What does this fold into?
Amino acid sequence: MSVPPQKKAFPLRVDPALYAAIERSAASDLRSVNAQVECLLREALARRGVKLADPVRPKRGRPAKAVQGDEE
It folds into this structure.
C-alpha cells in the first residue's frame, strides 16, 4: 500500500473577520477551513500563472482483493 506524501503543517495567524469569512465560504462549499484555505491559495497562484502539480488524493474504498498466486 502506498503512503500519500505528508502535508506541511505550520501555524497561520489571520484576522478573526477573515477567518470567519473563510469558515462561511468553506461551509457553503462543504469543505473544512483547512481545505478551503488550500483551495483559495491554489486558485490565487493559478491566477498569477504559477504552475502546480495536481494534489495527490488518497484512494478511497476497500483495497483490491489479492489474486491467487500473488502471495509471496
Observations:
- The chain has two helices and no strands.
- The two ends are 15 Å apart (CA to CA).
